[in-house]
Known about the structure:
With 450 residues, the chain is mainly α. The protein is built from 21 helices and no strands. It has helices spanning 2-20, 25-39, 44-77, 82-91, 96-110, 116-133, 138-152, 159-168, 172-209, 222-239, 248-267, 272-287, 291-324, 327-338, 341-345, 347-353, 355-359, 364-380, 386-397, 408-417, 421-445.
Amino acid sequence: MGLTIIGLGIIVVTVGILLRGKSNPTVVMSLVPVLGALVAGYSLADVSDFFGSGLGSVMSVVVMFIFAIIYFGILSDTGLFTPLVRGLIIATRGNPILVALGTAAIGTVVHLDGAGATTFLITIPALLPLYKAMHMSRYILLAIIALAASVMNMVPWAGPVGRASSVIDQTPVELWLNILPMQGVALILVFFIAAFLGWQEQRRIAKLRQSPDFIGTGDVNVNAIAEDFAEREKKKIAELGITIRKGRWVTIFNIVLSMIMLVILMSGAMEPGPVFLIGTAIALIVNFPQSSEQADTMKRHAPNALSMAGVILAAAMFLGVLNETGMLEQISLSLIAVLPAAVGAQLHIIVGLLGVPLDLLTSTDAYYFSLLPVVQETVATYGVTGTGAASALILGNIIGTFVSPFSPALWLAIGLSGASIGKHIKVTFPIAWVFGALLVLLAMLFGLTA
């Protein structure tokens, strides 16, 4: 009973501090479990062993995160996505339904790097002028980008899958391959939802134009908006003050390199860490001719990379203490004792169905590092695999990533769009919850949560 109480104390205190936002997750998940272990009577040497055990399960994830973030940062520096976004803006032709579909496509492509802040920094300044010119709601813009980016957040180098894989001691790619069919379904649903929202906007704007109070014209110069976006992106690259190799062959090489890396990742021929390490080294040589600029590029993207890596390393202490002391096992045994068998076996499904509301009540770190371990340990006694438990929690929660006020990237999006966080939640939350719950039920139907 003592280990159960101390283990629950560690989890509750960690979640509480994370929710208050008074301290960095790295600090919280490092110190709280250490104090808990000492209270439980373990020595500093024991704590060191616990950390070593936890470190073994997360190190491959840390390496992948560091070099994946740097790799996609390099692609962003080269302006690889600029022509595609520009072309998609022009392709909308000022039609609200096509604009909504184009928004979904742009959000999907730009979020390939798994970085929410980068996605919003590129998409909102590019598309907001188009939405304003067409009298479309900025909240529709936010909703579509939030949903598209959330679905793309299922890639193994994004935060949620990396966190979950470190908990269940599996590689991010193995976990991703299990939910990959659902990611494909989710992408299709994003475009259906975007088309529906665009149709609603088309009807609303048609009524608005008939109002005597309507101010504006029917002319929207999408070419000018697209060119303005392209010029802003060129200016950003120029402000870096570095020499980047130009030419069609460089662009083609970057695309081919990325495709080869994706094939290797999906085939399982090599661990994700070495894939991104080698890919980053090749991308640096090809895109930056001078060694000093290669070093500067590494430094430029290092803060983002190390920020995520630090959280995962701190999770090694958190998970190491909970697992190696037996606290997690005792918590799950206590939970099983009070839960009916029918509920216990489906606990991961129940939590998954509540994933989006939970995203508004907990931070991402609290959800994956505090809630998932308990759920996984509990359902494991009923024969549910760690992959199945993690998949249910990811699919149910991930669609709410950019609805939750605990997402720093969302506040950036709110600021860039001049929107209200309350109204964004009011518009996007119901869609995201139904979306996430549907993915969990479909995954259960397809046997992906067993």
